[in-house]
Amino acid sequence: MIEIDASVNPELVPLSWLIGSWEGVGVVGYADTPEKQFGQRIEFVAHPGTPYLQYNAHAWLLTEDGELDSTLTLETGIWQLVRPRDAGDVGPGMLVPTEEPSFTSAAAVETLRTNDDAFEIEAEIVHPHGVMELYAGYVKGPRIDLSTDVVARTKTAKEYTASTRMYGLVGGELMWAWDMAALGHELATHSSARLKKLS
Fold this sequence. Notes:
Number of helices: 1
Radius of gyration: 18 Å
Structural class: mainly beta
C-alpha cells in the first residue's frame, strides 16, 4: 500500500511513492568488466511548493567482506511530470510567475494521464565525470520506465551514448535496473539494486 502525504504537490502524487531515503546493495558490471557488489543510497526530496522531485544518489564499491571500498559515483537531478509550461511557472532562469499555477488540483493533474493509464515523466541526471542525461519515460502505478532522449558529454568524458532505467516498488522495496550503451558497446545490462526505505 502506498501512503500519500496530503501536503504533497498534486503534480507529485504519481511519483510520491519514491519520496524519501532508500539504501541497499546491488551489482555493477558491463561488457568485459567483471561484476562487483556496491552499496547505494538514493534520496527523492519534495520541496514545499515545487512540482518536481530533487534526486540524489551516492554509490560506493564494496569489498568482498561487504565493507566500503571507494565511491563509484554521485548523481543529482530533477524528476517531474511532462506538461506544458506557462505563465504560472518559474522560469526561464529565476523569472517569477506572472499568473497562478495551472496544475494545483488532482483534477488538473488527471488531464495529463495517458490513454494507457500512465503519466509521461522527464528526469535530468548529472554525473561528476562529464555526463548529463535527459530521460523521457512513464510512471504507471509504482513502476517507472525511462530512456535517454539526450546525452551530453564534456570533451574529457568517456564515450557514453544511451541508457535505459527501470524503477519499481516491489514488496515495499525500491528495485531498479540500468542498461547503457558505452565504450563502443550496444545497450546492455550495467547495474541493478534492491533498496529498503529508511525510517
